[in-house]
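Help!! Second protein's tokens look totally different from the first
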Amino acid sequence: MEEFEVAVIGAGPAGATAAYLLAKSGLSVLLIERGTYPGSKNVSGGLIYTEVLGQVYPGFWEEAPIERPITGHDIVLLGGDAAVALSFRKAAVESAAPPHNAYSVLRARFDPWLAGKAEAAGATLVTGVTVDKLVIENDRVVGVQAGPDRVAANVVVDAEGTRALLLRQARLIGPFHSGEVSLGIKEVIRLPEGTIHERFLCSRQTGTALTMIGHTLGVSGGGFLYTNRDSLSVGVVAKLDSLHRSGRRPHEILGEFKAHPFVSRLVEGGEVVEYSAQTVHQGGLHHSSTLCGDGYVVVGSAARLILNNLFTLRGMDLAVVSGVAAAQAVLEAHRRNDFSASALSVYRDYLRSTPVYQDMETFRGARSVLSNRRFFEIYPDLACAVTEELFAVHKTPSTKLFRILRDKAKGKVSGLDLVRDAAALARVLAI
């Protein structure tokens, strides 16, 4: 039986960051990845925010395989054959010194770089190995088992991802409810760099991220599109219970989304070079799993650390933050030679002190909006109809916004529900 001071399950941003910091501090670390290489099993929209990553890996943008700085953001409501968009662009951003607020990345390129940093710091990386179970003795996690091989460790860092099969198998967390889980379906579509510049009005130093709502066959969820260097990351995130009720297949939802005129003109002529799908936990503080116990800590999406504040879906920066907090806790436990749940509980304290965790506190009310089907099934069409009327010129006198809204909403949503939903949205975003 091999022995390491720390065994890390999963070489995504959370696991690789924890392994990097622990190995850098002199601990013997085993980093286990079930994919043939880090990133081969990961699915994400593909945005990484620099505030946290830059603290752990200073100047990462100069050496990491990033795609584009994301300098423009669009929020788009997709109606039947129309769209209403709120766009942000910053002037003279091409001349701004890096780092930018966010970069698009492709996980198949980015994750191997992260894992390579951990290796360079002294961690042992093994790939193509599936951990079958957590080894538990006297109610304490003491290592991992993969096939006939057992590895002992003072602490196991669980970064296995959203499904958290090992944690559920060991009954360290409870079962998931379908209403708490979504399915992310994504394509990477290759397009010439010049075409991306023309369609998205960007340059080599700029890029765009679009968050879209509507046109998903009535399934609750939303879409995204990010510009990479010579490709687009395009996908939808659909709530699992809503998808099940619809009877639709995942690729049908993505196909309908891509067929919308607003989206189709952006992806026209592109070649699909990658298709992937993965469950995504709804996340949030109300869903946080047990973060630690005797001999283990849980990081990243395995700990359900996802933030959806309605205009961005953040996961990778939360993963990095949790990897940092976990490493701090493990190092403190190592100094005290105490790996009990009580000793490792400082992980929660480190995590709660971070701005990212506080963002989760700020936007915890987003759950009520995301659970409201009207925001996905009714309001995108309503917004398009109202906006079209605002710009229309008729033979009859024009009317004001409230009356247009009232007329267009008739038979679709009651005035009381409209007021309630507006108030809920305001509480999340403005109050």
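Here's the second one for comparison:
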Amino acid sequence: MTDRPNDIHAPAIAPYGAWTSPFTSEFLVASAVRLGGPTAIGADLYWTEGRPTEGGRQVIVRRTPDGVTADVTPSPFNARTRVHEYGGGAAILDVDGTIYAPSFEDQKLYRVRPGEEPEPVTHTEGMRYADGIVDAARQRLICVREGHTGDGEAVNTIAAINLATGDETVLIEGHDFFA
């Protein structure tokens, strides 16, 4: 075997970390689906999928006990929050299969029922919502709410949102961060 330095397929020696690769970090994650927030409601399993092939759109997915998997949030709805800039728990699930999720486009909370178009629940401009639960007894959502309505830092609260009217009531305030 002879050493052929002009052979483009010959291995090259380079210092650790300085070698080049045809596999960039962008190439490696270009089609990697991100999974998050698995939650069981009855016998159904729900989770979010971050889909890079759809521009990073966050989709809420449901799997039934018979193995059928389907998107709950229709395209182009992007169930993603910008609370604390990096997001938080976006999907809020009710025991009846109704989902409450923020739209990345306007950050309002929407009611999503399987087979139906999302309908807005909140109407206050400049708010972001995350990490919620359904308070069925009082017909409201309890969640982290981040207000971007004034100058300066965002105002973080824990808020209750009336499911019938979308009216919001601050339950806890006065701290820089809630989760």
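Reply: Different proteins will give different token patterns, so don't panic. The first strand starts at residue 34 and ends at 41.
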